[in-house]
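## retry 2 of 3
previous attempt timed out at serialization; input unchanged, resubmitting
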Amino acid sequence: MVTMETDLHTPRVVHPTERIVTGRVLRLLEGYPREVRVGQPVLVAVLTAAGVVGLLMLLVRSLLTNVGGGARRSFKELKKGPEFLVTPVRLRDRAERLVEVELHGHLPQSALHPGDHVQVTLRPQPDADLPPKIERIVNLTTGQLLTPRTATVWSHLGPALLLQATLGALLLCGIAAWSMLR
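## retry succeeded, writing output
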């Protein structure tokens, strides 16, 4: 009977608990999309305030000319948040541990390569099962300071809708203040 002893030791990947980790980039894994959640109370408040101004604008448009408005996104489209790219990154830290972190958003293609010596600033994610996400990368090999950018709820709603909601909220506050003074 032949016995084979194998020393196939696969290193265990850990999620770091430190805020700052210094190490070498081993691998950038395949990225995948993740959706930002949009809270329904926030969306309802923004749409209600924007609706007040929207009704006023509709009234003014109908009185002045017969100009049509722009295309509006539905509640369902707005509730479905924006997607952003998540790229798992494997590092070998100073203690020779295999560390996995997540890069949310995009970086320039030439910004990070396997073998680069980096210092990453991390933030824990709401789901404790997920690795921490990278807030900032200092690529010590190239001397670059990198900050990944992702879509937010506010960028998803857009400046036009947010401006309209702000004007609506101000109008509602003005009407409430005027009615209290009477």
